[in-house]
Amino acid sequence: MSSGAASITFYDIASAPPLRTFAANPWKIRLALNYKRVPYKTQWVQMPDIAAVREKLGVPANRTNADGSPYHTLPVIEDQSTGALVGDTFEIAQYLDSTYPSKEGKNLFRPETIGLVAAHNAHIDGIFTKYALLCSKMPFDPSVASKVGEMFAKRAAYMGKDMSVSEERRQAMFIAFEAALGELSKAYLAKPFLDGQDPVYADLIIGAWLKMFEACMPEEDWAQVRTWHGGLWGRVVDELKPWAEMK
């Protein structure tokens, strides 16, 4: 990482101790900050406090519940050097590239690819969100776990979703998840990343979701995922380790 005082405060969702990133969207930005060597510090926020923190910062919710009420999420970045507050994950990635262009070529987006990467982001989010119920070991701080459970149940009710997972349903979902990642694996024509030797934001999007599943699936399930499709997903996560540092 580059030296110098951190000008960016990165707001991330607090886990149980030891504090670490576990959700997909914060992982996208932590990987991006580390890859671009932008100095930053982390402000950990308990999930029940996210709405209050965003409102205090003056960052409006960028998502809504089914009833139209605001749904506040993280990450947010606050850049003291420019005064910028950015609260949408994809917009944060664009901000980092435009405000902190890399002299070493470590930019998140290739020229003229923003639209393509936005479509890729939506596609990947859709794949992994469909199987997020496999993440049954979310590492929330025990002090807020019951309140978080209530929040999830309320949001599921808004969306008309059944959050219960029988063993039969879980097994069927696990098989379908392997098939979905099998289709995605066909995009890996270059090695070790989608576009060759160096990652771009499209790689970080996939890596972030894999890191979430690594943190939140039962260990035996994640061990299987790592081996799927010739061990591709384990290699993707391993290749991103240099940029997975907690700061």
TrEMBL record:
Q: Boundaries of each GST N-terminal domain copy?
A: 13-104
Q: Name one Pfam family in it.
A: GST_N_2
Gene source species: Cercospora zeae-maydis SCOH1-5
Q: What SUPFAM superfamilies would the database entry show?
A: Thioredoxin-like (SSF52833)
InterPro entries, alphabetically?
Glutathione_S-Trfase_N, GST_UstS-like_C, Thioredoxin-like_sf
- Protein's UniProt name: GST N-terminal domain-containing protein
